[in-house]
Write a structure and sequence with these properties.
two-stranded antiparallel ribbon, elongated
């Protein structure tokens, strides 16, 4: 059986930068954290955003921060020199999208 967090929190590369968000919405966990820090209760958040559920807001507020997966694209830093070539040309020569 999946946990409440697993069913109410999702992260998709390319949607809101891959940040964890309430499932089926574009509302990020960080958005709800800011709203609660501004003093909004879960009931007020659901009233303001009726497409959210209390379960989704509750899951977001109680998910352990270290349990949020990093689903961002892998990044690699390459240090190199190629005399007489612009940085953009060097980048084009050593990288390509996967």
């Amino acid at each position: 059986m999946e946990s409440a967090q697993a069913t109410h929190i999702e992260s998709t590369p390319g949607v809101r930068g891959g940040k964890p968000r309430i499932a089926g919405t574009r509302i990020c966990v960080s958005d709800v954290v800011l709203w609660t820090e501004d003093g909004l209760s879960p009931d007020e958040i659901v009233t303001e955003f009726p497409h959210l559920t209390l379960a989704g807001v509750y899951s977001m507020r109680h998910i352990p921060l270290d349990a949020i997966p990093d689903l961002s694209d892998a990044q690699v830093i390459v240090f190199t020199q190629w005399e007489g070539r612009s940085p953009n040309l060097v980048e084009d020569q050593v990288t390509y999208p996967i």
